Amino acid sequence: MTETMSWLQAVVLGALQGLTEFLPISSSGHLRIASQLWFGQDAGASFTAVTQLGTELAVLLFFAKDIGRIVVSWFAGLRDPQRRDLDYRVGWYVILATIPIGLLGFVFKDEIRTAGRNLWLIAGMLIAFSFVFILAERIGTRTKSLEEMTRRDAVAMGLAQCLALIPGVSRSGATASAGLFAGMKREAAFRFSFLIAIPAVLASGLFSLKDAFEPTGEGVSASGPQILVATFIAFVLGYVSIAWLLKFVSHHSLTWFAGYRIALGLLVIGLLAGGVITT
Predict the structure, then answer these.
(1) pLDDT digits (tens, 9 = 90+) for 65-94
(2) What's the confidence (pLDDT) of residue 67?
(3) Which domain holds residue 75?
(4) With left for phi above 0 and alpha for psi between -120 and 50, is residue 223 left, alpha or beta?
(5) Which of 156, 258, 264, 275 has the smallest CB count inside 10 Å?
(6) What would you measure as the largest C-alpha separation in the chain, in angstroms?
(7) Is residue 163 part of a domain?
């Protein structure tokens, strides 16, 4: 049965999306947990995907100069081999890293909206991938800059991004961890993580627009103004969180986030086991 979303739901979920999208703590997992805990129902994968358009707009604005430079260099490099610089290579790296999630996202789009939003699964992923973060910090040398990034690194991060299709994993956490395993510096890994998220999230959000207004099966139906407000809130808070995260990871490890994820995962398991919330 489909219910109508309240303005409180729209505002709270939009704020949560903006605050958690770029942190390696899983925004989709947080929205799923919060909507179930506070409102007793799942806001739906489509609502999450559409509000992500706001956070991706924040990425486009924050990295506007970098993106513009990469696009110009990529097209220039296609015409003139002498102009194939770092930005040209990064352009190709973004394309290569986007292909895996594009294919898997299309193939498993139905599972993502149904079985993938099970709270037991989300809690398990929050905990399990916390240890991936810790391992990446211990193994990674954190010496490689973006200039030293290779095609293999880009493909590895692109494959890791596919794991973000499972709520609870975290897109930035999975891709940044892959970058750390490849020896990249934290800030460089996160910067590339944000860049490769742009095509995937924009495509997902636009594809999900219709379903966000008219969800099929269980879910909450949001009005146009509600989605617009939630997306705008996500944009503003998303921009702030990008700036904060890039500063934070330049001096602090991912283990800070791992501790939080483990605590949240255990809390959700406790609530599920106690019957306080349902899957």
Answers:
(1) 999 999 999 999 999 999 999 999 999 999
(2) 94
(3) 2-273
(4) beta
(5) 275
(6) 64
(7) yes
